[in-house]
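Q: What would this chain look like folded?
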Amino acid sequence: MEVTNNTRLLKLRDILFEETDENNELSITEIEDKLKLHFGTDASFDPRTLKRDIEILEESGVDIARNKGKYGKVYYSYQDHLFETYQLRFINDAVLSAKFITEKEKKTLIQKTKQMTSRHIAKTLPDPVLFSQSSNEDYQLVKLNIDYIHRAISDQKVLQYHYGRYNLKKEFEFSRNGDLYEVEPYALIWQSDYYYLIGKFRGNGEMRHYRLDRMRHMDMKEERFRRDAFTIQDYVDQSFHMFTGEDSRIKIEFDASLLNVVIDRFGIDASITPVTDDRFILSTQAKISRGLINWILTWGAKAKVLSPDKLVEDIKQEVEHMYKHYQ
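A: My prediction, written as structure tokens:
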């Protein structure tokens, strides 16, 4: 390959980007060796020219660190990668744990993120084969729905689609007798391993959420809508386990061993009042829903609902139904 000023400079930049980081540096001699691996052993590189190339890269905005070693030998490294190692780990773990992404797409995405750092750090990132294989038959559908919803939110246009779920025969059935849903989209969020659309259902004006993998035949209408004042975070916080229900103030007495579980679920700012050394009371706003009931029952005798009365009765009825199964 012919060595020109441009090709040499570009390859030098690539070497610094791919081969160096906070813990891996290269001397001018080592950089020269790597250039020869690319251009051929017959190619020659003047150390003074390479040092000038490094200065040109710095003048163009590339932050190159210098570190003096033994006998004054200078080592060079590029440490200003787009992502920190922990940030890449966040991204990779999120990709690998996503149930709807195919294994092929996971490998492609992980490979792309590895190109955003040095090869040394890239080697330390998790391999897709180490994660459990997930069910992602609906991946192509979800991918298209994400695109539709993203554009609809940006353009404030109404979405129209069928919505449903699987029956005991593993057949997908549409809800509302197959009638189309018309929704004004407000937000697209990731919650409990699934993507959800949060929006206003035009049938009754309620704010609701819908799982993307349960949507079919999505279409974006030309009709635009005006957004109402609405705080997405408040909705997410109150829509416990992503189930809809009536807002209510609840009080639950817990065993002290569940303190961190409660904080994880309701946040550090939740109202928690110690009752004894081994019991405390949680007081918070939540939606009375099947999801909330099931979560409370998960903890058995370690959780006791104090109010509201309706939730107390719902728990009692569920416990009675469970008891009858074992009579």
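The CA atoms of residues 55 and 64 lie 9 Å apart.
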